[in-house]
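Researcher: Re-running this chain for the archive, since the previous output was lost when a drive failed. Same request as before.
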Amino acid sequence: MSWEQDVVAKHGRPLAEIEGHVYVLHYETPQVVKSVSSEYAAVPPQQDQDGFLSATAIRHYVGWTQQANPRKRINRHGRAAQREIVYLEPGTLRDEETMKRAGVCPKCGEDLRDSFAARS
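Model: Regenerated structure tokens:
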């Protein structure tokens, strides 16, 4: 069973409606980060046991987690000294998607979608 199916079975609701935390990371110096999201990854994706590597160094990362302490998930995206948490609020995967597609960084005002990997 996939992690998505596990979460849906646990909560008995569609994945997009399950509460967690949405977060935005700002990298002053762009970084290559690990993610479970393929939106930042190259085609074909480069990955290891922890997830996909971003196609290039990125300036922003938008994520969602259900972990009680969201910082545990955030820490999987690289060292704390290399990033700043500029947004961390309760939300759903639907909220994460909206932030990824239409949000701007609260720190620098850049479009968050600009960090996505270019697709051919």
